[in-house]
Write a structure and sequence with these properties.
Layout: H1 7-30, H2 35-58, H3 66-107, H4 121-131, H5 135-142, H6 148-180, H7 182-197, H8 199-237, H9 242-253, H10 259-272, H11 276-306, H12 310-324, H13 328-348
Helix pairs in contact: 2-6, 3-5, 3-6, 7-8, 8-9, 8-11, 8-13, 9-10, 10-11, 12-13
């Protein structure tokens, strides 16, 4: 940059930077509701890129329109089909729950036999007899879930479903354009990174890509593996709706410490049926699978790709989920890995030579 700028040129540059910053902030504010869709599309594109690149090499003539459409449709089916099956199964369960609630209002809820085997069984039995065993008591407890609060909750859930459906639709649109124009997008980011950060810009971009892929391998694939293993255990143990519980376990296992909640509920259902041995077996096997996945497999997959200690991986995952929801599962570790790369480059830079003494 020339140092002998005139006052007019200096004012023009200041005005240009100011206008660019203001327009950038305005653009972020206008598109803030749809930024998650763009980030999701980018994460999905990074995840499927190795397979998509091989498809491009095999069918080079279809890379402009056909392959992006096929890839986007497959991703939509991969998400919508399991989600639809889960909703259908949940609807069936809802009918059973409504029938159980209707029966409880008329006949009450009998006390399970396993309560007498628990510590403080006398107090628990007394509470059950007062609140659930009689039709009046069970009707009073169930009445808490009715009325305006239930209606309001249903409205909130409906609005949330509509909002997430719109985000999902725009994610598919953004994914199509990201796959179609990926070369131009990569080139633009490469030039921007080189101008802003020099040689470190390309290394940061590579680190982000490796972090996202490592996080997907460590969270999504390992979570699916946990769900498959525990689904087999559910089938053998006699858990009601074992495939549904297996699918929910796989989803919960993608979040650290989420799987114990699901196989704990499965164990409680077995306990209500009097299968104490199988309930203990589910808890023991679930804990063992969780220990191997969280302490051996995931640190290798995520930490090896991000070059992060597992503590920082865990902070990135949990902090990302708390801040950005499900999207934070992938953005959090990538952010921590990028910051760690910047820190390592900073501390590894050789110090300036000392000034000569006067």
């Amino acid at each position: 940059m020339p140092s002998d700028l005139t006052s007019t040129e200096r004012q023009q540059r200041i005005a240009k930077v100011t206008v660019a910053v203001l327009l950038g902030l305005l653009g972020l504010w206008v598109s803030s509701n749809f930024l998650p869709a763009i980030v999701w599309a980018t994460v999905i594109a990074i995840a499927i890129w190795p397979v998509y690149a091989r498809a491009e090499q095999r069918w080079p003539k279809a890379r402009e329109i056909t392959l992006p459409i096929i890839a986007t449709a497959l991703i939509a089916l991969l998400i919508l089909v399991p989600l639809t099956l889960l909703l259908i199964e949940a609807a069936r369960e809802a009918k059973g729950v409504l029938a159980w609630m209707a029966d409880a209002r008329v006949n009450g809820v009998p006390q399970p036999q396993w309560i007498s085997q628990l510590p403080y069984s006398g107090e628990l039995s007394k509470w059950w007899q007062e609140h659930l065993a009689t039709p009046e008591g069970s009707a009073h407890e169930l009445r808490r879930f009715q009325g305006a609060m239930l209606v309001q909750h249903s409205q909130l859930v409906g609005k949330d479903i509509i909002h997430r459906g719109i985000i999902f639709f725009f994610t598919l649109i953004a994914l199509f354009f990201v796959l179609r124009d990926r070369e131009a997008i990569i080139e633009q980011f490469h030039r921007a990174g080189e101008r802003l950060l020099g040689a470190a810009g390309e290394r940061l971009g590579q680190q982000v890509v490796l972090s996202v892929r490592g996080t997907i391998d460590g969270l999504v694939l390992v979570g699916i593996g946990e769900g498959v293993v525990l689904a087999v255990v559910y089938v053998v143990a006699g858990v009601p709706h074992p495939l549904l519980f297996g699918a929910v376990t796989a989803i919960a296992a993608m979040i650290p410490f989420g799987a114990p909640l699901i196989f704990g509920i499965a164990a409680l259902l077995l306990l209500t049926k009097g299968a104490l041995g199988w309930a203990i077996t589910v808890v023991v096997i679930g804990t063992a699978v969780l220990f191997v996945a969280d302490h051996i497999i995931r640190p290798v997959l995520i930490g090896g790709a991000t070059r992060l200690p597992f503590l920082w991986v865990l902070i990135g995952i949990l902090g990302g989920v708390e801040t950005l929801g499900l999207l934070g599962l992938f953005v959090g570790p990538a952010t921590m890995a990028t910051l760690m790369l910047l820190w390592r480059e900073y501390v590894s830079t050789p110090e300036a030579p000392p000034l000569p003494e006067a």
